[in-house]
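hi! just following up on the protien thing from before. the input was this:
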Amino acid sequence: MRIIKNVFKVLALIIISIIISLGILWLWPERTPAITKSDNSVAKIDYIKIGDVEQCVLIRGHNTNNPILLFLHGGPGMPLMYLAHEFQRPLEENFTVVQWDRRGAGKTYARNKPSVESINVRQILDDAYELIDTLKNRYNQKQIILVGHSFGTYLGSIMVTEKPELFSQYVSVGQVVDEKKARILQERFISEQADLKGRSEIIEELNKSNNSNLENWLFEFGGELKNSKSFFPLVWSGMWAPEYTLPEVFKVAEASSFSSSNMKYNVLTNSIYNEIREYQIPVYFIAGKSDYTTPHELISEYYFLINAPKKEMIYFENSAHFPFFEEPYKFSQVINSLFIK
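and the predicted 3d structure came back as:
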């Protein structure tokens, strides 16, 4: 009986500790670690009124005279800021790194839920150009380096085509190319993996004409994260992002769903594959060899079709759709080697 009582005491202490820890995390304020190695450094979470919405940016770098590296996150409402602590610290030595939670995403959504009407590609592009003007003026820069991930590459390809004078280079991570072509490759990949693992029920579901959501199967077979069968590692990492409060972390999924369901594609009439073949600035494509969210074969096909003053294809052998998360050291090495001589 004494043993049972002791076990209950231990369990009660564990539960109380968890509750207290969650309470502390819930109340813990947003913050970003200071950079103390330089008098000209920046490390700040800022809210800038862009369009009609106060939008959150994280700006970090050892020297504000360094080139600006602006990340465009995916989703369309899945922030990259809450993963930044996993990979961007080495980049901050050579760049002023800017993470931006767009309207309808992350900290911006948690602070200001936008109107449904404002969730459209044209509005987000206009927001981006306004932010870029602000950053260039603030840090006395003529051009910036643009880095897009997933849906951010859809925006990025349009931006560097519409206003190439704003950018010195464009880095694409998991390039969005063509939804219909990607779907064919995704279904083939899932079918092959299901066949190998004896999952006939998945193949039956794939054959149903009304089946539109492949994400769970892409995760299960390593097409989103090579080494995980779910998005849990991304959520877990986000929970420990110093820039995010716990209530903001809990809003991430809601924001992503809001943006995805309401996004209006009102700029291009066709796919990137069909409409954008000419780039006036150097472009670099980074693709995970296991990526089937934006299938790496399709990115490679698109890469060979485009013209640019300079272009390069860089594969990450041990990654799927999130190479900066799965191979962070290599990612920072690649970015630094591209632009720092």
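Strands lie at 42-50, 53-61, 68-72, 96-101, 144-149, 167-173, 283-288, 311-316.
The longest helix spans residues 2-27.
cheers
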